[in-house]
Write a structure and sequence with these properties.
BirA Bifunctional Protein, domain 2, six-stranded mixed β-sheet, two-stranded antiparallel ribbon
Amino acid sequence: MATCSFIKERKQTAGSMGRVIQYVSQPKKTMDEEGNRYLTGVNCVADVAMQSFMATKHLYGKDTGTFFYQYTQSFAPEEILTPAQAHQIGLELAEQFFPGCEVLVATHVDRQHLHSHLVVNSVHPDTGKKLHFTPRTLEDMRKVSDQICMEHGLSTLKPYQQDHRTKGLRAGECRAAMRGESWKFQLITTVEAAMRRAGSREEFIQEMNRRGYQVRWKENRKCITYTTP
């Protein structure tokens, strides 16, 4: 099962885009012990992704405003798959969900949970149009990700549990999540693990309680409230 998240970058400049590309492309994060590197450019060359992104922007005179979007596709530690499989799934997600766009896919293999960063150029190289994403975009992306995971024999959330909205993690929170230090990321993975085991609201609350979380889920309340350990 994969979880897709949006990383909100408050600073949108060429410099910040370059720093993000540099961070996700680090060999120590994208290379395994055998020397295999999981860094691929979709409709661009990975090693010169920054130059490619900027060339497209300059071509259409759109080198202002939003420069890029960043998403992550993370797999649960208990999911049995190789770095190559995780990277292939990330590539398929980039190709299917961002058709024709320039996307850098960097799969990080330096942590227990494999995850891929998808850095997307905000300007389409063929049409010159700027991409505009909404909260609904993440929901649609998760559905495509789930379909790809099923095709690869991986588990997914039940359909009725997929249509929910989650705000994007801020850049600092994402970096903490990738280090395993983010309480938000731990809550997300815990909720999804409990959802896979529970068949009712009561069972879900029991599963969360067993993991040390308190849950307030009332019929007359719009949102579910969690108290972390």
